[in-house]
Amino acid sequence: MCGIAGQLHLAGGGADPELVRRMSDLIRHRGPDGDGIYVDGMVALAHRRLAIIDLSEEGHQPMQNEDGALWLVFNGEIYNYRELMEELISCGHQFRSKTDTEVILHAYEEWGVDCLRRFNGMWAFALWDERRGELFCARDRLGIKPFYYAMAGDSFLFASEIKALRDHPGIGRRPNEEMVSAFLTWGLADHTNQTMFEGVLQLLPAHYMIVGESGIVEHTAFWEVAFNPALESEPDSDERLSGEFLSLLEDAVDLHLRSDVPVGTCLSGGLDSSSLTVLINRALHRSSPGKEPPRQNTFSACFEDKRCDESTYIDIAVESTGVRSHRVYPTTDSIWADIEHLLYINDEPFAALTLYSQYCVMRLARDEVKVVLDGQGADELLAGYIAYQYCHIRELVRGFHILRAARETLGTLRHHSDFLSYTLTQLFARKKHRSLIRMEGSRTPRYRGTLNEVLETDLMRANLPYLLHWEDRTSMAFSIEARVPFLDYRVVEFLASLPADQKIRGGVTKFILRKAIRGLVPEVIRCRMDKKGFATPEEVWMQGDMSEKVLEILSSEAFKSRPYWDADAVAESYKAFLQGKAPYSSEIWRIICCELWLRRFIDPAA
After folding, report:
1. Which intervals hold domain Glutamine amidotransferase type-2 (predicted)?
2. Given 2, 266, 360, 593, the catalytic residue
3. What is the pLDDT of residues 16-33, one digit of tens each?
């Protein structure tokens, strides 16, 4: 895991090495183990190294091929690099290192842009092809690793984080009004190729582009996921499908454990992270036949507020696996200082204080490991959110599957009655709070269409891209590589190919996962229907310890001068919440966070 940055001066002009060095310095947290820069005429490439595979100097970047015609800066991991290396050696290629970086170079030599379809991993890279005079830029299938870019005069600039691009005085000085409004109104971000900064774009997941002297000459997708429209499985297929899924997920975990540095696990106590913890233990035992396997380290966030705390489930997972448990207890004692850093590392405002838990977990983990695995992506693939059940029932009704729709409705009410009540309260509260926003942004149509259409939207355009943004920034802030085995593209394709009833059945979410891990994960966790993840007691904090600072922000002249919201109405709504006269919803935090973001990134440039 690393940080990359660079410049391609179009029309044959010379790149600015000092600019690129400054860009690299701004993302040094992504790679404290080394840095390098390559400059040759119109191109400059910079790299910050977090050494994970082949810790020797042979892994130094920018990396060149044998004749120096290709130069690469790469952020991420190609998990199947060993298999690809063997294949490339059989094709006549010679390797001087054991790195996945060098595999990318030889794969490009052998297969051109089609090399992307052979990679299993997460990546964002830029490869300079001197013979063609082209910069080949690519991002992994699910967008796990970031790639931002901008045009400034005659230059194309790219970087792992927006802050590096903004070192150029002509980039990202004004807010992108459409994206800011979409964030405030709907909580959307990372749902298009645009960012909150005007003129700063991101390469979309599963896309590559080629940049030449005339600018971007090609920009296209290299992969798409196809969801099965079927509602029901074939008779007696549950055992076969759950067995196939378990085998595939175990292989994905094996690949994601490939590392030359210590690896840990984020354990929330929920179904997804507990499943990974168990599967990682099994993998460690398989890799240590006849001897004591290494002990797994897990990292968890816990709270005094029992509505958010999952210590009971974490204890059960720890006891059943024998892992070494590390825990952090986020509080409001230093939250404002941490939020300042959170804003800086994220570059853009964030929609919920849930991110603070993840931030604290990553800060805890840095003292023990350099790599963590977690369960990101399972909800979008396995229909883990309650809203997906509404979509599923609606689809059944529209297809005149009335009896099945009734069974799903009853099952949903049986398993999720408390959460349904809370959700309805929040629905009305959020609708009311959206009226506080003066500029309504465009909306990605979430929760419309069939279940699988909704899952595809959340996976590729709405929910997951934003969560992966958080994942990358909070981990890299502490020089940690975060890996997500559920997003192995083979797992994604397999789950997408399944009928809807393998995801939701009788009101039970993640049906096939629960079936696959039976006998492996403790029953009290396997049968959990509530969902918390790394939640925070945001509502309690906003009503208590954070309120003084929030009120100060709401009363400031800067806040009152913004065109995005009705400042007086926002203040009245928040005071009504403090007095117990109105419910809380996350729109309040989004407005506060956006104000802090404007102060941090936009106002200084005014």
Report:
1. 2-214
2. 2
3. 999 999 999 999 999 999
